[in-house]
Here is the input.
Amino acid sequence: NAGVTQTPKFQVLKTGQSMTLQCAQDMNHEYMSWYRQDPGMGLRLIHYSVGAGITDQGEVPNGYNVSRSTTEDFPLRLLSAAPSQTSVYFCASSVMTAGYLEGGYTFGSGTRLTVV
Amino acid sequence: QKEVEQDPGPLSVPEGAIVSLNCTYSNSAFQYFMWYRQYSRKGPELLMYTYSSGNKEDGRFTAQVDKSSKYISLFIRDSQPSDSATYLCAMSPRGYQKVTFGTGTKLQVIP
Here is the structure.
């Protein structure tokens, strides 16, 4: 049982480049989300999805795009990378009950991104 | 002011000690409370999940919620060096789709 799989584990980008961080889960979870983790600021929600075709913004969505074409996959796109996007990115998924979260998150192992 | 406050530590204790980790919050709508453990360079993993006030025990771990004081705690009994990690509290209202995290407390258990 793989859980939540994130790729790549590490990435270095130049300012202005674009890239996609991949996230896949095999638990049939309706809810998927992307967080960034920065020292002293904790985990901040970027975007989330409550099912295929449904996405919404979190706390820090600027500079990022998402789409959800299948239940399993939730890629995060950086449109034009900036040094402020240097961070550790985590994908998380969860069961939903009656349209809201239930039971806590399962996190992936993270992608460490450096923008130079 | 942040919705969830958590002392960043670091907290150093000798092996075998009882550890108390705490969070305070300001949003009275929070009803689901969680504790995650995060080892260095790893993703957080769910330790405890509780609903509303009261205590929940799982092995050496006890989660306590006091909604009247807007205060939650995680107690670790007989702490082990393998408990050395960052502990994140998290919470959400009922019927909501977002979870708010504390910034985490770094714990070191010294053999």
